[in-house]
Amino acid sequence: MARSNVTVQHETPATTRRVEPLIEIERKILDFMVQYLRANTYQPSIREIGERFGIKSTKTVSEHLQALADKGYLERDPSRSRGVRILGVDLGADTVAVPCFSKIPARGADQGAETYVSMDRQFGSQEGSFIVRAGPGDLAVLGVAEGDFVLVSPATLDDLDDGAVIVAEVGDTSAFHRVTRNGKGLALESLQPGRGPTLLEDTTKFRVIGRVTGFYRRMHDAGTINLTQH
At the top level of CATH, which class does the domain 1-91 belong to? Predict the structure, then answer.
């Protein structure tokens, strides 16, 4: 099979491209295209995408690809079977594209990202990792400033050691906390100055979205940041 002229766009946090959330089939098709491209260096054809998902109509596959383009994930040339450019995905061997959000996503990285950050695979390779921009005072006691890029990796309650900094959903609110255990349940320490801990005896009202594993900072307001190792 001949290679296509597929290219990928390398993006940094300064990028202003916006994307919209995907429905399930669109997400699956996009994931398949990225995996196929990694393995083969060229994109699957419309017919191969249809066979993968049991879609008999090439027109239907084309409509899904156009939806991905309309939502900001692809650029495509409908006249060519493999004329697709995936946006926001870095396929370099040493890098991974991590979804980035301006505020904590309610469903973690499963929700549509606003942009993507390319970073060294050893820091952001865990599936389900995402980056969120810190809000005013979110992590102030740790020295994290507003606008810093906070890396969050998937975790469950059983994975957490006492003192871990996490993103958790308590009731209808998602926020950063430091978690500790006591004989009665969990203590969630707010990382904003002046706020006391929240004691949880019923952990069914608590959901771990992820564990904070690092943060990245612009060194001056006019500068840009590139998280990919060179």
Answer: mainly alpha
Q: If you search the block for the tokens 């959903």, which residue do you land on?
A: 169
Which runs of E-coded beta strand occur in 22-172? 74-76, 84-86, 95-101, 115-120, 130-133, 149-153, 164-170
Residue with tokens 């952990």: 203
Distances (CA, A) of 77 to 3, 26, 67, 71, 82: 15, 18, 13, 16, 8
Instruction: Determine the pLDDT at residue 59.
Output: 92
Residue 80 near residue 5, CB atoms below 8 Å: no
131 close to 217: Cβ distance less than 8 angstroms? no
Q: Of the ranges 1-5, 19-23, 99-103, which one carries the lowest mean pLDDT score?
A: 1-5
Residue 52: both structure tokens together = 């993968």
Tell whether the model's pLDDT for residue 115 goes beyond 90: no
Joined tokens for residue 122: 């050893």
Nearest to 168 by CA among 182, 146, 187, 149: 187
Is CATH 2.10.109.10 the classification given to domain 98-216? yes
- Parse the chain into domains and list their residue ranges: 1-91, 98-216
pLDDT at 186 over 70: yes
CA atoms of 67 and 200, how far apart (whole Å):
43
pLDDT at 221 over 60: no
Instruction: Give the global pTM.
Output: 0.57
